[in-house]
């Protein structure tokens, strides 16, 4: 199989954009074209002042170096498909909202329409790579669609190459991945296609970090990795509830158990709950897969990870209400952070959305500040979370501010919902001076120095700590 010289990526989102921008940077001899149906998104990727559609530390530098050289962003999908030797399919695979499997199964309509488009317009052989996270055996459906709709003499090899980057650290994850996983059919053609993709990564990833496996193992490994990661968060959050009830400290517990080399220290930070576009969706997908395979005990086991996450969010809201003398009606709550984690502007499944929704239902007045999330996004998320409440009513109760200080002014309570570094460095004395008293801080991210804040005069409640002084 000849070496790949032209790559196309269908889907210019949080995965397709950074992943293929890094491929372009690291492989100057390969022409990379990232395409999308969304003209606004492509315009933003092409914007002269690099106002890119997603925020990711280091991303601008990568795009600045490669764009116009061997990296292109376009809505001309057909042309990019025709030109490419290798096509990444990196479209969204959200949870289905209706029909069979609603609430659990992955909605594969975008994967299917991208696949049909490839079949329709391709005039030469292609390697088609599943980059999207998909249920086990999706590659088989893709192959069936491609073979049934393609022109004669057009051959397609399908690979699975799930993406393990984490938002917020996407560029360093891509530069230095723990591993790259490539799944293929174990036929001579499948292995040749897998080698062609491996050769692209070999431009910067050590060969022992590129794992080649069977297609179905590759697809399942991505769901399994996210399920195990989310399970760790729900496990530590479940323990945080016990800490609060007993007077133990979740930081100390995490530290102690993390010293066990079989457990390890990472991903043991208690919080108000996990968010993001992937963890919940991928676990629900695994639950659905397990139920479809008549494995109800397996399905229930994984579903509990999501149930625990919901419980953690509700538990946090209840703590806020209980602590503020059992009512927050008419009180001002300052919510610091709206993104699902620090260093991203992504709000998909952000715990902050649930918290704000709960506070609004308790008839509180909510101020919100996030350093990266656009105002329109916050309004859109709240409207989606409360479809039966008119936007004008939401806007009467919510005020979006341009700084943390402004957010906290005249508030009764500050709720830390995202672990942005700048919240640790706020001038808390100034915040305290501007707040109504008693002034409360609820730290949902184990971010602040609680003792210091108590010294200033705050009443501080931290997730996973029994003591409330
Ligand atoms: N976001 C993450 O951190 C992450 C990490 C690993 C894997 N994933 C997986 O990667 C996939 C993509 O995720 P994302 O966060 O980049 O999604 P996204 O919603 O940010 O981007 C997907 C893009 O695909 C485009 N698209 C959809 N159908 C198309 C079509 N037929 N033709 C052209 N463009 C089309 C959309 O317009 C959108 O811009 C998902 O399956 C996700 O589960 C995401």
From TrEMBL:
<dbReference type="GO" id="GO:0051287">
    <property type="term" value="F:NAD binding"/>
</dbReference>
<feature type="binding site">
    <location>
        <begin position="132"/>
        <end position="133"/>
    </location>
    <ligand>
        <name>NAD(+)</name>
    </ligand>
</feature>
<comment type="pathway">
    <text>Nucleotide-sugar biosynthesis; UDP-alpha-D-glucuronate biosynthesis; UDP-alpha-D-glucuronate from UDP-alpha-D-glucose: step 1/1.</text>
</comment>
<feature type="domain" description="UDP-glucose/GDP-mannose dehydrogenase C-terminal">
    <location>
        <begin position="334"/>
        <end position="450"/>
    </location>
</feature>
<dbReference type="InterPro" id="IPR008927">
    <property type="entry name" value="6-PGluconate_DH-like_C_sf"/>
</dbReference>
<dbReference type="GO" id="GO:0003979">
    <property type="term" value="F:UDP-glucose 6-dehydrogenase activity"/>
</dbReference>
<comment type="similarity">
    <text>Belongs to the UDP-glucose/GDP-mannose dehydrogenase family.</text>
</comment>
<protein>
    <recommendedName>
        <fullName>UDP-glucose 6-dehydrogenase</fullName>
        <ecNumber>1.1.1.22</ecNumber>
    </recommendedName>
</protein>
<dbReference type="GO" id="GO:0005634">
    <property type="term" value="C:nucleus"/>
</dbReference>
<feature type="binding site">
    <location>
        <position position="36"/>
    </location>
    <ligand>
        <name>NAD(+)</name>
    </ligand>
</feature>
<dbReference type="InterPro" id="IPR001732">
    <property type="entry name" value="UDP-Glc/GDP-Man_DH_N"/>
</dbReference>
<dbReference type="Pfam" id="PF03720">
    <property type="entry name" value="UDPG_MGDP_dh_C"/>
</dbReference>
<feature type="binding site">
    <location>
        <position position="41"/>
    </location>
    <ligand>
        <name>NAD(+)</name>
    </ligand>
</feature>
<dbReference type="InterPro" id="IPR036220">
    <property type="entry name" value="UDP-Glc/GDP-Man_DH_C_sf"/>
</dbReference>
<dbReference type="InterPro" id="IPR036291">
    <property type="entry name" value="NAD(P)-bd_dom_sf"/>
</dbReference>
<dbReference type="InterPro" id="IPR017476">
    <property type="entry name" value="UDP-Glc/GDP-Man"/>
</dbReference>
<keyword id="KW-0560">Oxidoreductase</keyword>
<keyword id="KW-0520">NAD</keyword>
<dbReference type="GO" id="GO:0006065">
    <property type="term" value="P:UDP-glucuronate biosynthetic process"/>
</dbReference>
<dbReference type="Pfam" id="PF03721">
    <property type="entry name" value="UDPG_MGDP_dh_N"/>
</dbReference>
<dbReference type="GO" id="GO:0006024">
    <property type="term" value="P:glycosaminoglycan biosynthetic process"/>
</dbReference>
<dbReference type="InterPro" id="IPR014026">
    <property type="entry name" value="UDP-Glc/GDP-Man_DH_dimer"/>
</dbReference>
<feature type="binding site">
    <location>
        <position position="348"/>
    </location>
    <ligand>
        <name>NAD(+)</name>
    </ligand>
</feature>
<dbReference type="InterPro" id="IPR014027">
    <property type="entry name" value="UDP-Glc/GDP-Man_DH_C"/>
</dbReference>
<feature type="active site" description="Nucleophile">
    <location>
        <position position="278"/>
    </location>
</feature>
<feature type="binding site">
    <location>
        <begin position="11"/>
        <end position="16"/>
    </location>
    <ligand>
        <name>NAD(+)</name>
    </ligand>
</feature>
<dbReference type="InterPro" id="IPR028356">
    <property type="entry name" value="UDPglc_DH_euk"/>
</dbReference>
<feature type="binding site">
    <location>
        <begin position="278"/>
        <end position="281"/>
    </location>
    <ligand>
        <name>NAD(+)</name>
    </ligand>
</feature>
<feature type="binding site">
    <location>
        <position position="167"/>
    </location>
    <ligand>
        <name>NAD(+)</name>
    </ligand>
</feature>
<feature type="binding site">
    <location>
        <begin position="91"/>
        <end position="95"/>
    </location>
    <ligand>
        <name>NAD(+)</name>
    </ligand>
</feature>
<dbReference type="Pfam" id="PF00984">
    <property type="entry name" value="UDPG_MGDP_dh"/>
</dbReference>
């Amino acid at each position: 199989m000849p070496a790949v010289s032209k790559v196309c990526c269908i889907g210019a989102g949080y995965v397709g954009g950074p992943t293929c921008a890094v491929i372009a940077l690291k492989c100057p001899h390969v022409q990379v074209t990232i395409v999308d149906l969304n003209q606004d998104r492509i315009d933003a990727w092409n914007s002269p002042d690099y106002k890119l559609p997603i925020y990711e530390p280091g991303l601008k530098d990568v795009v600045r170096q490669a764009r116009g050289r061997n990296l292109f962003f376009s809505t001309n999908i057909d042309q990019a498909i025709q030109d490419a030797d290798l096509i990444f399919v990196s479209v969204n695979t959200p949870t289905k909202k209706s029909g069979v499997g609603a609430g659990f199964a992955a909605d594969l309509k975008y994967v299917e329409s991208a696949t049909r488009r490839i079949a329709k317009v391709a005039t030469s052989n292609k390697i088609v790579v599943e980059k999207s996270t998909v249920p086990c055996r999706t590659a088989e459906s893709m192959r069936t669609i491609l073979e049934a709709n393609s022109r004669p003499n057009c051959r397609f090899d399908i690979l699975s190459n799930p993406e393990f980057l984490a938002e917020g650290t996407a560029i360093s994850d891509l530069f230095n991945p723990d591993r790259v996983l490539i799944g293929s059919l174990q036929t001579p053609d499948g292995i040749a296609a897998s080698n062609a993709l491996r050769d692209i990564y070999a431009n910067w990833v050590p060969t022992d970090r590129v794992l080649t496996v069977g297609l179905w193992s590759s697809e399942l490994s991505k769901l399994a990795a996210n399920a195990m990661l989310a399970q760790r968060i729900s496990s530590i959050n479940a323990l945080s509830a016990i800490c609060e009830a007993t007077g133990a400290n979740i930081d100390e517990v995490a530290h102690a158990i993390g010293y066990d080399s079989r457990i390890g220290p990472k991903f043991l930070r208690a919080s108000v709950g996990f968010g993001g576009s992937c963890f919940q969706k991928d676990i629900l997908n695994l639950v659905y897969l397990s139920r479809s395979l008549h494995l109800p005990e397996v399905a229930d086991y994984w579903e509990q990870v999501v149930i625990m996450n919901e419980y953690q969010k509700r538990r946090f809201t209840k703590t806020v209400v209980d602590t503020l003398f059992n009512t927050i009606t008419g009180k001002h709550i300052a919510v610091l952070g709206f993104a699902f984690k620090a260093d991203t502007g992504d709000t998909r499944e952000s715990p902050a959305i649930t918290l704000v929704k709960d506070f609004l239902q308790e008839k509180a007045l909510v101020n919100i500040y996030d350093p990266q999330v656009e105002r329109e996004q916050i309004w859109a998320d709240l409207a989606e979370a409360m479809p039966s409440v008119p936007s004008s009513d939401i806007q009467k109760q919510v005020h979006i501010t341009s700084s943390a200080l402004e957010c906290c002014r005249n508030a009764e309570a500050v709720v830390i919902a995202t672990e942005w570094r700048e919240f640790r460095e706020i001038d808390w004395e100034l915040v305290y001076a501007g707040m109504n008293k008693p002034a409360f801080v609820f730290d949902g991210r184990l971010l602040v120095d609680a003792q210091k804040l108590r010294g200033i005069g705050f009443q501080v409640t931290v997730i996973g700590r029994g003591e409330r002084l």
